[in-house]
Amino acid sequence: QVQLEESGGGLVQPGGSLRLSCAASGSIFAINAMGWHRQAPGQQRELVAGITKFGNSNVTDSVKGRFTISVDFAKNTAYLQMSNLKPEDTAIYYCFALIVNANRGAAEYRGQGTRVTVSS
Questions:
Q1: Is-contact 27 102, C-beta < 8 A?
Q2: How far, in Å, are 67, 90, 102 from residue 48 at the CA level?
């Protein structure tokens, strides 16, 4: 079994900052990529940012220059530093990871989500 546990969400005023963390644990042989999706009320889930173990990253245009993704593959932990937050960033943020488990099976796993609310 593999678990992803997110933390760091909350309520913040526009212009503020938050840092999300995601720790993967369980039967992990290797992690090939980690990242974050988000889903706002009434909206489809969208990719926010992702990064592979080779250092290739992808950040959606709406958060470029404001959000920074980083992953410590040695600790199986991903971070999303969010700055200059806007009300439209309000969403549930889900961590995801592309994991090879101990049985050498590969799959995408997702966390339970952490809520981010940007409001004055």
A1: yes
A2: 9, 12, 28
Q: How far apart are CA 61 and CA 65, in angstroms?
A: 9
The tokens of 15 are what? 């212009």
Residues in the chain: 120
The amino acid present at 84, given as its one-letter code, is N
Q: How many CB atoms lie within 10 A of CB 92?
A: 18
**Tell me: the pLDDT tens digits for 17-60?**
999 999 999 999 999 999 999 999 999 999 999 999 999 999 99
Exposed, middle or buried by CB within 10 Å (0-12, 13-18, 19+), for 63?
buried
